[in-house]
Batch of 3 targets.
Target 1
Amino acid sequence: MNAFERAFERTIGHEGGYSIDPRDPGGETKFGISRRSYPRENIAEMTIDRARVIYERDFWVAAKCDEMPDKLAIEVFDAAVNSGIPQASRWLQRSLGVADDGVIGPVTLSAARACAVDGTVARFLGWRLAFMADLSTWPAFGRGWARRVSANLRDVGV
């Protein structure tokens, strides 16, 4: 199984099936694909295969996950799906000690390839959890987000 497939399997395990939750700013959602982000998709009829195509194109490739160490890429991907690429990029950049402009470019990728991966992943997850805890939707979704980050932390060093 390649890194994208591992990332997809982990992320899809955190994302639910079909839902319309009035507390969710994404609105109608299935497999983590929201009506707000994908207004032209038929969310109710979304298949796992269609979700995989969207995830690979719009998150894995777009966040340049294929150009960084697998463990780090898997975390960046999961965060990008959950919070968007610019935010995931900032957490990555802060974790690497480079300017956090929200764009994964040559400086960020060079630092990612040279980093101590486990420590970078731990810092990344720390930034991610702190951000989520400050969101107004934390009371509604915080327990699930904390479980997601906790599950990811358990894989550090594996």
Target 2
Amino acid sequence: MSQTVSLPAEHASEIRRFWPAIVACFATAVLGWGFGFTGTSVYLAELQRLRHWPGATIASAIAAYYVLGALFLLRVDAVMRRLGPASMLSTSAGLLTLGSTLFSRSTHVWELYGAAVLMAAGWAGCTSAAISSTLALYFNHQRGLAITLALNGASTAGFTVAPLLVELSEHIGVGNAVPLVAAGMLAIVVPLNTFALPAPRGALVATSSTSAAAANNLLRTWRFWSVALPFALALAAQVGLIVHLVSFLLPRLGASSAATALALTSVAAVSGRLILAGIIDRLRQRSAAAASFVSQAVGVASMLVWPHRPEALYAGCVLFGLSVGNVITFPALIIQREFPAVAFGVVIGLSTSVSQFTFALAPALLGVIRDATGGYPAVLVACIAFQLAAAIAVLARR
């Protein structure tokens, strides 16, 4: 099991030397989650409105995107060793924005699935596994803090990229809004990655066979599944709800207020992660994760019980959002603490892949539930059930 050594001088040295890497990964996370995660909610709502396609049809394409992304995740560690972190993150950002542009401009259903392939390849290289593995090349003693700060970009995307896409889509259409925002973000992300992520040669050229063998042994234990299973369930509820959130809020709040609610969700996510960053080393991480899952369930319950009261919807979004970022961050922190350091890259990649395989079906499943019941109450009940099950599973550690 890896141990964290308390050496303040070394800690400060790591931050002073490699803070540009945190900035670059933060920017990549904004782009990755903006177009590959919260942006999917905008694509679904706008394509339903413009093309009059069933929600389940679009959500199924989004599910296919996540499934393919889970497969690509298994190769992130190998691709990083081959290309280096800067090239991998920049190439992935380009693929994701190209795929998102094609997805948003689709005029036939089959085009959604073609775009999903490009999106999946890009998402795998921009998501938490890629960012955590990148920062692991530069940080040792302060890896948890570095990952937490960088992944704030995921939450920042929710109150920057997603609301901007909603507003621009109202004026110029989603098919024009996506490439416009994407071009601006790529102009920032690619230079940042190029100059802020020099290849740490020793870490990149080292063979991964030893770490892969160690990880494979650990994957056959409950220790691994006690991380992968609860976060798969929690992310299934989280991803599914976020994909459908704009469609749920629009008829109840209107476009402008729905964008505000979406922004509040992401502001809360940033706040929750910043609070966590300062105290996580003093908490029992599994207990903190369980508390996060339960708090999200309470937030969703607020939207279920008072669906036509704006203040309840805003409050539910904030309470749900407080743990959105932490649910993404906790796996890397738990794996760092409970698994050998040599296996970190492989284990985080496989854990993220397992989670993504599971939550990939959530948007389509919730879309089917919504179409079958004619509304969102049953969808919200399903999300609550997933979150409570995750809270139980994360504490069921031998």
Target 3
Amino acid sequence: MSAPITDKPPIVDRSFVDKFMVSVDRPLDYGVYFLFHDWWEGATTEAIDAYMEELHNIPGATDFLKEGYIAEPLTVEGLRDYGPGTLGAAYRDFVEENNLIENFGRDYRAFQKQLKSFGKLDRMPEDMAYMMVRGTQLHDFMHVLTGYGATIPGELALASYYLSQIRFPYHAIRLAVTMAHTALVAPKGVVPSMDAFVDGWYYGRNSTNINFEKWEERMGEPLAVLQAEMNLRQIAKAA
């Protein structure tokens, strides 16, 4: 006999649950980027407030959020000025080797305005909306600095790394979708997914928070020196 279903009112918006399950079925068909925006439409005020409290309690967050730093668009040609071993050279190599030229050099201030005009930032607190845009701009730098590759294990490990350093619903949803998919659809993915998540989580917890740095202004510095400064390892484990 099945257990009775509670008659208590739902907390999680049920229209979001339907979309969440579409992503759980086929994560690549309905990605977390779309799911993240879906969640905001029906998120409880309590959950939003809790995320904001978490964000503001992170050391270094207050001043960075107040400034609202968004770097100017980059060009691949401009990155060619950086010599071997620098962050700029490593960033350029990462972009070229992973065929990321199409989205490279995006104007993120214009991107932020576009999201607002499309209503994608509705209900989203200003600081959280800013961190979403800045986090998107920072993403490839995170790969280069942490050593995680642009692969499925690398992306999962980096999502966990992000979540360990800055509580953000996007990364929490990515972990939730992945674990639900492996639990209910593809159990062979449990071990590699958990290996990536655990590695990223402990890596992020044991390195300096790298989300509030202006990495675009430090591209002439040696990558190894920056990694040592932030207690980052120089050998990737989830490439």
